[in-house]
Design brief:
Elements lengths: L3 E9 L4 H8 L4 H6 L5 E8 L6 E8 L2 H10 L1 H11 L3 E11 L1
Antiparallel strand pairs: 1-3, 1-4, 2-3
């Protein structure tokens, strides 16, 4: 079964970069939430070398179904964490979903 990947771009508030990296990085709150669901593979946090305070997250799941089950089962926790993280960014946008 092909993997399911989605990518987000974040423009982070300069004074919140360290906190953003901690929450969105490998040992952060997002990964801790994702790990609770079967089918989660991993998350990659990338910092743009050319644009200050721009980051990408690459979240990998075994399948789109696994991701959808996660969203269904953990939707409330997802929305609470997302709301808590709003203060960290100036802008965010989806760069799409992909198949490995």
């Amino acid at each position: 079964m092909p993997g399911y990947v989605y990518v987000w771009q974040f423009d982070v508030r300069p004074d919140k970069a360290a906190l953003f990296e901690r929450i969105y990085g490998r040992g952060g709150d997002w990964v801790a939430l994702f790990r609770r669901a079967p089918g989660y593979v991993d998350t990659l946090l990338l910092k743009d070398r050319a644009v200050a305070n721009r980051y990408l997250t690459v979240d990998r799941w075994q399948s789109e179904d696994a991701y959808e089950r996660f969203r269904s089962q953990f939707g409330a926790e997802y929305h609470l964490l997302d709301a808590r993280c709003e203060e960290l960014t100036l802008a965010e946008r989806s760069l799409g979903t992909y198949t490995e």
